[in-house]
């Protein structure tokens, strides 16, 4: 099997899984129970929270555990919108966002909020002067992804955050789901930050929303005490501990892992550039873990099925976007409907080997030529 869909989800790291199992077995108490077992569980949870806070350079009290980035994004956007609705009803975002941002904002639009989309420059980065021009006294929130899940464009988050500091009433949310564990992240100028453990070899079902101390949120899940007042439910201790472990491991040798992925990415790009009908959509601002291309002449679903026969797996667009629609992210970048309707995403990991890439390229050539030939005969 050749797995090239690491941006959809990653396989769990064995050490992380062992940690999860150990905590499940050895800590049966609810961290909020007052007895000894509860206290032990609570102590362990606090240690994990401290570790996460140290890794991300935030305060322990700023960490809210969620079920994943979809929930973190929902809590950030709805939480801000409902808490600050009397301050204003205007929200700014990009056309590159994941469905959990896009659809939450569509929902908020129906609730009376106004959504503006900031222009992208030709290279796919946010147009900062357009962003500035969109801000009004009604603006309460700007939400921008650190790295988008389809093209892998890394946005200048520090610079955007710095710009937004001049507007004391505008809150800055960043969806960091595709960034954490792959690149260095800096949350200095960010108010709210979402991420999910299953994108960096952690378990599915746990994520975080970082909420800086001075920001308030209206909770979306009510029901008593958890680790914070912003998200109720019994703390998922084994998942929380496993998240801390996965995060710590993902931060180790980050640069070495990045360089390995970069080399693999360059190898694929060099080969795919030989195909005159293929467009390479990811550019020098994309992280090397995500390589988006448009097949143009071939339907991406057909190609995915052809490659699946060889047990090679990758995605069309992001795994969470609706089927049978073109990529709105790509349309925003290239303004070309055919390219937006025929894109595939190859996503790489430091676990990917050169041999896997060679095999992938061999089967790519074989299936691409066969499908092209079939198309010409039709
Ligand atoms: N945001 C981005 C940028 C993503 O790539 C994803 C997952 N595809 C999510 C949010 C949602 O994450 P989760 O699966 O943890 O809900």
Features:
378 residues, alpha/beta, Aspartate Aminotransferase, domain 1, Aspartate Aminotransferase, domain 2, seven-stranded mixed sheet, 41% helix, globular, binds 4'-deoxy-4'-aminopyridoxal-5'-phosphate
What does this structure look like?
By secondary structure, the chain is α/β, with parallel strands linked by helices. The chain folds into two domains: about 130 residues, Aspartate Aminotransferase, domain 1, CATH 3.90.1150.10; about 240 residues, Aspartate Aminotransferase, domain 2 (3-Layer(aba) Sandwich). About 40% of the residues lie in helices and about 15% in strands. It is built from twelve helices and twelve strands. A seven-stranded mixed β-sheet has the order 2-8-7-6-5-3-4, with helices on both faces. Strands 9-10-12 form a three-stranded antiparallel β-sheet. Helix 4 links the parallel strand 3 and strand 4. It starts with a strand and ends with a helix. Bound molecules: 4'-deoxy-4'-aminopyridoxal-5'-phosphate. 4'-deoxy-4'-aminopyridoxal-5'-phosphate binds next to helix 3.
């Amino acid at each position: 099997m050749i797995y090239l869909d690491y941006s959809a989800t990653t396989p769990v790291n064995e050490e992380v899984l062992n940690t999860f199992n150990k905590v499940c077995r050895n800590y049966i108490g609810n961290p909020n129970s007052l007895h000894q077992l509860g206290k032990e569980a609570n102590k362990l949870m606090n240690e994990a929270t401290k570790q996460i806070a140290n890794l991300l350079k935030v305060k322990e009290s700023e960490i809210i555990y969620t079920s994943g980035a979809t929930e973190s994004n929902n809590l950030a956007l709805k939480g801000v919108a409902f808490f600050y609705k009397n301050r204003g009803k205007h929200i700014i975002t990009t056309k590159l966002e994941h469905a959990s941002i896009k659809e939450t904002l569509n929902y908020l639009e129906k609730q009376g909020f106004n959504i503006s989309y900031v222009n992208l420059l030709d290279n796919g980065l946010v147009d900062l002067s357009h962003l500035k021009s969109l801000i009004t006294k009604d603006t309460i929130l700007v939400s921008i992804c650190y790295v988008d899940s389809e093209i892998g464009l890394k946005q200048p988050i520090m610079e955007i955050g710095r710009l937004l500091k001049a507007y004391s009433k505008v809150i800055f949310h960043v969806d960091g789901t595709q960034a954490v564990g792959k690149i260095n992240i800096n949350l200095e100028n960010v108010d709210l930050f979402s991420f999910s453990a299953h994108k960096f070899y952690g378990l599915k079902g746990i994520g975080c929303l970082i909420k800086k101390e001075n920001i308030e949120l209206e909770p979306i899940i009510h029901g008593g005490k958890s680790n914070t007042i912003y998200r109720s439910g019994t703390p998922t201790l084994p998942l929380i501990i496993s998240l801390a472990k996965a995060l710590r491991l993902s931060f180790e040798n980050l640069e070495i892992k990045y360089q390995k992925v970069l080399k693999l990415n360059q190898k694929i790009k060099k080969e795919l550039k030989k195909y005159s009908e293929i467009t390479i959509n990811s550019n020098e601002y994309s992280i090397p873990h995500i390589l988006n291309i448009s097949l143009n002449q071939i339907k991406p679903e057909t190609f995915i099925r052809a490659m699946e026969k060889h047990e090679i797996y990758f995605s069309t667009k992001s795994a969470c976007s609706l089927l049978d629609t073109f990529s709105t992210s790509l349309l925003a970048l290239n303004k070309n409907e055919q390219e937006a309707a025929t894109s595939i995403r190859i996503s790489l990991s430091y676990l990917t080997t050169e041999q896997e890439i060679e095999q992938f390229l061999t089967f790519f050539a074989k299936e691409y030529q066969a499908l092209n030939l079939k198309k010409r005969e039709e």
